[in-house]
Amino acid sequence: MSQSGVIDQEDGALPQSKPARRRLPFSGSYTDNRRLFLFCLGAPAVLYVLVVGVWPLAQGVWYSFFDYNLLKPNRTKFVGLDNYFDIFADRSARQAILNTFQFTIFSVAIQLVLGFGLALLLWRDSRFNRICLAFLLIPATITPLVVGLIYKALLGADYGLIGYFLANAGIGPRTGLMTDGSTALWTLILIDCWEWTPLMALILLAGLKSLPSDVLEAGQADGATSLQRFTMLIVPLMLPSIFLALVLRTMDAFRVFDTVYVTTGGGPNDATNTLMLLAVKQGLQFFNVGYASAIGNVTILFIAIMAGVLIFCVRRADVRINGR
């Protein structure tokens, strides 16, 4: 070995080379690895949505163009838009559409007014209000199926704890509130309000608690009355929360099924028949999958239209009040 550290040729030793570095499978740039990591995280959720949501929806759209009955699968034939035309030509289906819109509009409107009032009452952060809110949310934790069974038992004219005394007092029909065409749908609307008004109040209460206190205090300092602060400050600032509550409850109320199914079954004389109940009857009772799929698609279309109308109205109110 020479002093310079270079191996002499006569020593017979070969120069040592550095071992080749093995390339790892995910040794790209940080950006590429981050994208791959995010893709791996989101892929199961996307796959679940495709399998559980998109694929059945696509099948429903496809079946709606066919005269497809499970009892006669060999006689399936393409009918185009005939199933959709049959919905608006059928008297029972037209009544179901009318009942669904009536149920949705009145129940959501009542829940909005009552929910806003409850949210204002519970706005102050105190122990008493927190206890009241906990008890208030109990109805929203009960499944609609159980709620329907409970009220069917309570409102029965023969043995119901409420219906028996109402019938004997001459309030409402003698056969019960759910057996008369003039009161059955309104009874279901009130039952829905009893169950879901707490949820509406909870959403609006969260919006109230997120309001900037300095704006409200400035309005009070300027001499604005309680009504003026409510109409000119609270309501404009609450528009996003109101929109969220309206959209969530409208989508849920329009596809009501459980409560109606266990209480009236759509009767009497289709007075409480709804679109979802009609679709279930056609699909699972008469096995008319094509017609049931068309009813389901019409329901989705109506929900999208109502959501679009709500977005337009809230956006227009926001522009008119807040100027943005």
TrEMBL record:
Keyword Transferase: no
Compartment list: Cell membrane
Superkingdom of source: Bacteria
Stretches for region Disordered: 1-20
Chief localisation class: membrane
Membrane topology designation: Multi-pass membrane protein
Domain ABC transmembrane type-1, first and last residues per copy: 97-310
InterPro entries in UniProt: MetI-like (IPR000515), MetI-like_sf (IPR035906)
This protein's UniProt keywords: Cell membrane, Membrane, Transmembrane, Transmembrane helix, Transport
Transmembrane segments: 36-58, 101-123, 130-151, 184-208, 229-248, 291-314
Pfam families cross-referenced by the UniProt entry: BPD_transp_1
Keyword Transmembrane in annotation: yes
Family (UniProt): Belongs to the binding-protein-dependent transport system permease family.
Protein's name according to its UniProt entry: Sugar ABC transporter permease
Species assigned in the record: Devosia neptuniae
